[in-house]
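Anyone else keep sequences and C-alpha cells together like this?

Example one:
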Amino acid sequence: MRRTLESKRKVLVAGVMTIRNEVDVVRANVLHHYSQGIRHMLVVDDGSTDGTAEELEELQREGLVRCFHHTGGYAQAAWTNHLTQVARQDGADWVVPLDADEFWVAPGSRIDAVLAVAPEDALHVRSMNVVQRRSQVTPDVRGLTSMVYRPQAQFTASHQVDDLMANEQLSLVEVRWVPKWIYRPSPLRSVDTGSHFLSGPVGARRSTPDIIFMHAVLRS
C-alpha cells in the first residue's frame, strides 16, 4: 500500500537541453518527453541558423518549453548547469539532461512515475543506439519512425575508439556511449559536458534499468 500511495505522488521533472540546428527533431523531442512526464522543458538555442530558434519560439507560445538564446561557443556544460539551477528555483524535483538526438523512455511506465518512487539523489541511465533504415536519405522527422535497428555496441567511448574509427575498423554506431546522470537539483551539484560525470555533494546513487535513452547517433 505504501508503494502504491508513493507512486501517485506528483513530481516535477525538468528537461534541460542545449541545441544547435536541430529543426528536424526538436518538436518531436519535446512532445516525446512531455508524454513521458517531463513537463518542464528548459531549452537554450545556441546560434541555430536552420529554423530551430523559430521552432522553439513557437513551442514556447504553445506552453511546451521555456526557451533561451545564446550565440558563441557551444558551452553545453555551462548551460546545463545554469538551466539546472533555473529548474531548481522553479521547484523541480528532478533534472533530466537531454540532447536533441536522445529519446528517453521508462519501458512499461513513465519517467515521472519512476522518479516519484526513487529515494536516491541521482540515477545512472544507460543508452541504446538506434539507426535509421538506409532508404532514409533526407533529414526529416519521419525518419525517426524508421529507427528500429540496433547495432551491436561492443566498445565504450575512449581514445582507443577514436583510433579504431580512424582506421575504419569501427563504426560510430557500434560505440557504447557512457551512461548519463539524472539527478535532484542542488546549488552545489553540477555535471560535465554530456552529463556523464556528476560533481558536488551527492547522497545515494545507483544505476537503473527502469529508464533508458535511445540515441539517434546518426541521422540523414
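And example two:
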Amino acid sequence: TGVPEGWLDRVLDRMGPGTSFRSISRGATVPRSMAGDQPSLSLRSVESFKLAGWEGVHDRTKQALTALYTGLEHPLSPAVASTLTALDTSEQLNAAEYQPGADYPDGDFAEGLVEIARLVKADVGLRVAAIDVGGWDTHTNIGRIDQGDMKNLLTPLGEALAAFAADLGDRLDDVTVVAITEFGRRIEQNASN
C-alpha cells in the first residue's frame, strides 16, 4: 500500500482489537513505531486529554460529534468513536484522583512513566505505550562511570525506571519494558572523550 507500518503497529495488529487506551504515546504525535492502521492515542497526561472548550458543554459536544459521524461512512468515523470513548475513560480516571505508589524523580520521562503506571493500574486495556526520551546524541564528554554526559543521562533514566517498578509492584510481572536506541558508539574513546 505504500503506507509505512511501524513494528509496534504490527504487534497490535496481531494482538487483535482492544480498548481505546490499548496503545498510547506520550507526546504530541504517535512515533514511527506505532504508525499504521492500528489506532493509538497521543497524550501528555490523562488530565490534559480533553477537547478544548469541553468544560460546561461536555454532553452537548459529545452528542453533536456522535450525531455528526453516526450513519456516515467517513474515514474518521472509527477514530471519532474511539476518541469519544477515550474521553469518557479519561474523565473516569480523573475523578479517581490518582496518587503514584512511589516517589518519582523530576523530569519529563518520569512524568510519562507516572501516566503509564496509572493506566496499567487502572486496567484500561493498555497493551503498548511509548515515551521518546531525547538528548542522547552526545558527541563530547560522554565520560566514565563516575562522571560525564552518559552518567548524567543514565542516572535519571535508572531512577525513573526504578520508581516505575516500585509503583507497579506485582503488576510489573505483566509489563515488559523495552529501551531502544538507534545511536551507537565505538568502544575505543575518541579525542573528545
